[in-house]
What we know:
Elements: H1 9-14, H2 29-42, H3 46-61, H4 69-73, H5 91-102
Amino acid sequence: MTFVSKKTTKESELTEGVMAVQLTIRMPDEYKGKIEGLAKRMGLKKSDVARLALKQFIEENVGNDRKVPYARVKHLVGSVQSGIKDLGQHHRKYLIQSIRKGS
């Protein structure tokens, strides 16, 4: 049996459709206060905070092809410039120089 209740706009944004599955979890005691604080500050229910956290975790980890390392770092490729043209070919030399300067 599924109960449908009238939802506020904020709740509607968090839930897509009817909630049909209930999940019970065990977590450290320290999380209770943090979740309650977040819920109060955001004007949400504790279950909404948990749902948001699960949604974010799932979006970040499901569908990402973990077998292809490039897929995990492609957003970083080309985002940093060292100014050293042959860094890729002589990285060991530059790493050793950097370590010696630091000590």
